[in-house]
Amino acid sequence: MSTLNGKVVLITGASGGLGARLALDVAKKGAIPILTARREDQLKAVQEMILQETRITAPYYILDVSNQESVETVFSQILKEHPHIHILVNNAGFGIFEEFAESPWKNIEGMFSTNVLGLMACTRALLPHMLQRGSGHIINIASQAGKISTPKSSVYAATKHAVLGFSNGLRLEVAHKGVDVTTINPGPIATDFFTLADQSGNYVKNVQKMMLKPSHVSEKIVKAMERPVREINLPWWMNVGSTMYQVMPKLIETLGGKSFRQK
Fold this sequence. Notes:
GO terms for molecular function: oxidoreductase activity, acting on the CH-OH group of donors, NAD or NADP as acceptor. Pfam families: adh_short. It comes from Fictibacillus phosphorivorans. InterPro entries: NAD(P)-bd_dom_sf (IPR036291), Sc_DH/Rdtase_CS (IPR020904), SDR_fam (IPR002347). About 40% of the residues are buried. This protein has a single domain, classed as 3-Layer(aba) Sandwich (Rossmann fold). The chain has helices at about 15-30, 40-55, 70-80, 105-135, 155-175, 195, 200-205, 215-225, 235-245, 250-255; strands at about 10, 30-35, 60, 85-90, 135-140, 180-185, 230-235. The protein has a seven-stranded parallel beta sheet, sandwiched between helices. β4 (about 85-90), α4 (about 105-135) and β5 form a beta-alpha-beta unit. It is of the alpha/beta class.
């Protein structure tokens, strides 16, 4: 029997892509996924899928993580109905690939509001309850982009870099208080993320063969839920490049050449 059996896992951005797949996979382990996202129709569809495949009813809540009032109101309601949230997965986020000089301010502000401040707001709403209980696990979906930035992803990479910085500091703050913090740093995943991020379709066309499957990423996250780790980097070879970049950035930028400009 999985250690997740009977646990409650709250997932933001659970209406599709990685979030929906993760919700299904934890339900298969006997956990109760709580689904949150902005689109009620999509949340209902994910709820029905989980019910059909696992016979587990996954409650859902309409949540806009970029709106602090929404986070406070919805999390308050969730905690009244589910007072013991064992795991929080901060998965909600989006990116838009474009040159910084051409980026409308609403796009820049939107990415930071969702990817960074929204993640912090959700964590802040739940962390005190975990600390009071002396147990819990926060999983933040970051990105390899947070370790090595490339053209047309300067703002998106900045948000994910912020997620990594926040997560690393928070991990140290709660290390001896029973709460684990894990960051997930994937490369490109084959989801509808790119419908908005890569409207030209060029990036997807160039990297399609190396895209990660949501099921593979979800499998790794579920294992981290059962046995917490500091971070997960996918695929391994991309993380090698990110690690080398920290040591010799100029050389890696030179060698990267055209591969960094696939957007």
